Amino acid sequence: MKRPGSIFCGSSDHGLSRRAFLGTGAAATAGTFAADMTQLDAFKNEVVAGELKKQGKKVILLWLAGGASQFETWDPKPGRPTGGPFRAIQTASTGVQISELLPKMSQHMDKTAIIRSLNTRVGDHGGGAALMETGRKKDPGILYPDLGAVVARELGRADSQVPDYVSMYTSTEGRRKGTSGFLGSRYAPMFLAEKPIPENMRRLDTISDVDHQDRAELRSLLSKQFVQGRKSDTLGSHTSAYQRVRGLMASEQLFNIENEPDAVRARYGPRQFAQQCLVARRLVEAGVPFVKVARAWWDSHGQNFETHRELCADLDHAMSTLIDDLDERGLLKDTLIITLAEFGRTPTINASLGRDHFANAWSCSLTGTGIRGGVAYGKTDPDGHNVAEGEVGAGQLFATILEALGVDPEKEIFVGSRPIPLADFGCHAVKDVLI
User: Fold this and answer.
1) Among 16, 143, 251, 268, which is disulfide-ready with 274 (CB 3.0 to 4.6 Å)?
2) Is the peptide bond preceding residue 362 cis, with omega within 30 degrees of 0?
3) What is the pLDDT of residue 177?
4) In angstroms, rounded to a whole number, what is the distance separating the alpha carbons of residues 396 and 393?
5) CATH code linked to domain 58-193+263-433
6) pLDDT tens-place string over residues 83-118
7) Based on the number of CB atoms within 10 Å of its own CB, is 320 exposed (0-12), middle (13-18) or buried (19 or more)?
């Protein structure tokens, strides 16, 4: 059985028949050379992975839960029957316009790329979210990891004392926790449902630090005795998770924005989404590879324009402040900020002045490391019904994000003897939005 780190894929193509064994010396030499090259490739992969971890790339995903409207954000259609009441405004990037509901972000388009041509075809909340989180359709035979878990695995450090993956949601979002899939619990998210500070991280006052250390050592001893003679990835993942507990407990204060200067907290303001973005900045600054922050609830089947006036103001302030803060601290060059949702909203405005679910022609944004700023990639038709140019699927977006981080989208992880690429089979990055 192939396991991660092995240089062979487990295929029968690598089997050696009697005839092959008794073949010519030239064939044997070729086989030896091939094996050496395979080992060399494996070594190179390890070196590349190690170098990536040293570079310290990070991701902050701003999840627009429920599905934000592309018309009121990144792909306005003013004056069209589908366009709604808001204008398009010029941005810091010549020729690129966005909705007037994002005036602050219009001045950050020199650092931001928009993809206006997403066609993902899945228009229900659960299915759409699962597709956009994992970059591929569900497979009944395997549970795929989401983007956060993949980034945590590829960019997280084994000796890190901070979490690899933090997910901040509000209860109104539906409590989608994310999944580490076949990567195991080591890369599962630390999920914060109600508060920006994790619960149950502090040592109980009734237990001294010495007692806590003794209990950890006893658990470690019992675990080592239990795994002797047993082979299980689950056991290894479970042990690894426990080994990081003390480090995670020490990171509690990273979530407490009261530790920030008054001027910084005032800059982000009192609203929950902005404060969670401040927590996200603190986390990536401390070395957390992936932080997901959700802003609910964009599911505007009724009163779409009033809903987006409020939510876009929140997004515009929080995102622009986060970009400036990261940039001033020298962190933006190593941090990728993504805005994404499960889908967009319909061109048709319904009887309740709302927009419904729409996954055939919608938008997202990418800002920061690896991204060519000032780009609006792809086009929709004049009324936004269909992609007219540069169609992008979920797998291509997934590959683009990984490549922006310096991660090879075609790198394979073996689940048993089955090779699974990080991005879906045959999906390549959108080069036009990458440096």
Assistant:
1) 268
2) no
3) 76
4) 5
5) 3.40.720.10
6) 999 999 999 999 999 999 999 999 999 999 999 999
7) middle
The three-state secondary structure class of 188 is coil
Residue 273: phi and psi, rounded to 5, are -60, -45
- Contacts of residue 352, Cβ cutoff 8 Å, sequence gap at least 6: 301, 302, 303
Low-confidence ranges of the chain (pLDDT < 50): 1-35, 37-38, 42
Model pLDDT for residues 165-211, shown as the tens digit of each residue: 999 976 555 556 789 999 998 899 998 877 767 766 666 678 777 88
pTM: 0.82
Orientation of helix 209-227 relative to helix 233-243, angle to 10°: 170
Paired strand residues for 362: 118
How many angstroms separate the CA atoms of 226 and 230, rounded?
A: 8
How buried is residue 381: exposed, middle or buried, by Cβ count under 10 Å (0-12/13-18/19+)? middle
What gap in Å lies between CA 35 and CA 129, rounded to an integer? 42
> Can you give the length of the chain in residues?
435
Q: Which stretch of DSSP H or E encloses residue 116?
A: strand 112-118
Are the C-beta atoms of 64 and 304 separated by less than 8 Å? Answer: no
Are the C-beta atoms of residues 143 and 182 closer than 8 Å to each other? yes
Domain edges within the chain: 58-193+263-433, 198-255
What is the pLDDT, as a whole number, of residue 230?
74
Q: Which amino acid is located at 40 in the chain?
A: L
Cβ neighbours of residue 393 closer than 8 Å, sequence gap 6 or more: 118, 119, 120, 427
Q: Which parts of 119-244 fold into alpha helices (H)?
A: 125-134, 147-155, 209-227, 233-243
